[in-house]
Each structure stands twice: as structure tokens, then as C-alpha cells.
Amino acid sequence: MERTARALFIFQILICVTVRNFLASSFAPIANTVGARRYRLFRMKSSLSAKDLKNLSSGKIIGPEIPSVEVSSKRLFLVRHGEVINPGGDRPVYYGALDVSLSPLGEAEAKAAAMYLEQFDLDLVVSSPLSRAVYGAEQVLSLQKDLDTPVVRMEGFKELDRGSWCGKTKEEIGLEAMAKFDACDESVTPEGGESYPFLKTRVLEDRDAVLDGLPAGGTAAIVSHLQVTRSMLSDALGIPTAKMAGLGIATASVTCIDYNPDGSQTVHFQSFKPDVGLEKSVDGAN
Fold first, then answer.
1. Which residue of the set 81, 83, 194, 225 is catalytic?
2. Residue 132 marked as a ligand binder
3. What's the per-residue H, E or C state across 250-278?
4. Active site residue 118
5. How many structural domains are present in the chain?
């Protein structure tokens, strides 16, 4: 019943989407709808300026080849948020579900991911309720020409709650405890925190609600977190939960999965990160 209610909520949002103007989408120039606020881009590998990044069109961001979504399937783009400002400063600590801020580089990464997705007609943009993911989702939405539906925030896509481990480094937690945790030994779940199996269950429940709300042939973007993306990707690849910690998901990267009517899942690509000249992000404890 709860899943049905979530699906109905999303469906009600979807029916409010404006009917796409095919002539406009075919012939009108791509509008530059990125917000007016300017961000200084730190740690650049090239001479790319903030203005250059802002004016990039989706046609300049080359990604993996991908077929159009089948009329009977549904497609999800899974986007991880950009680099964050670690609350431990030079001492990288785990933060999990804490609401930490994006770094200036992380904001630029989020914009680059949105620019890549600009070329796809999305029916829905969904986000974790945490601000680092909401920012990325708003960037994606801002570049969708015909989508005026607001970002849908879903609690199920919030990052893994590290509980009492928040604010501690891996060494302070203990390498043995971390290894057991990654292997889904629930006896070492931190006080007030979540295990990977618990996380994956809630993530897949909300993923299914999104899919139930999408029309056949529809596409949505879900902007969330490392462990959330791993949960959905491991399910698609048939990788056990106890092994999903080994899946690489870069900051502000995009993963694409199709969900087919026979129940199968097709992973078109994993952790694609648009190359727009930004320096490599710092991706520590999370």
C-alpha cells in the first residue's frame, strides 16, 4: 500500500508535465537556462573558465553511445552528487547522511552532469532530500527545455546513515570493523546507523515507486549518493549486497539503466563523468 501511494504521488506529478512541442525541440536553439549565480571554479586542469563551462552545450559533451529507450521499457539515469567539503577538514571523516555542502568544484561537477543530461528528454527529476543532491537535481531540471515539474525529493534516496561513525576516520572506526560492515555483517552496524541490507531495501522500494510512476518509454534522473547508486547498480548487475562496496561511482558521474517489461535490467554504462576540464575531485570517506 505504501509503495502504491508513492507511485500515485509520482504519477500525479507526471500528468502535470507539459506536452512536448516537437517542432520547438527539433528546430529551436537550446536555451541557456543555467541560474544567474556565478561560481568560481577552483583547481582547474585547463584554462576553462566559469563562463566557458556555463556556455557549454550538450553537443560538446561526448558520452557513451546509448540507444533510445524502448517503447515498452523505462530508463533511469543515476547521478551522484559532486565533491563535498568534508566536515573533518584535512582529517577525512565519514559523514553519511549528514547534510554537508558541495565544494566549488562539486558545484561545477554537478553542472557538467546536468549539461550531459540536457540532450535527453526527461519525464521526471528525483532527488535525495540532502542539499548536495538537491543542488545537482536542480541543475539537471534547469537545463530541461520542456520539463516544468519540480524536483521530487524522496527519503528513500538519502545516503547511508553512518550513525555513531559520523565524524570518525576509517582508522578510528577500525579497519576490521569497516571490512565486516562492507561484507554485510550486521553485528557491527554503528549505533543509530544503517546496514547495507537495510539501505538497499529502502532504496529499491523508492526506485520501484519511481518506475511505477513513469510511463512506458519514460525516462527519469535520480540524483543521490554513492551508496544509493551502488544499491541500484548492484541490483541491476546481480552483484550481492556484500560485494557492492567494490563498485566504483565517481562524484557527479552518471549511470544508465533500462528496466524492461520482462523484469530484466540493462546497464548501458556505469559512472560516466563528463570531461569538461575540471580537476579530479577528492572523494574520501562518505
1. 81
2. yes
3. CCCCEEEEEECCCCCEEEEEEEECCCCCE
4. no
5. 1
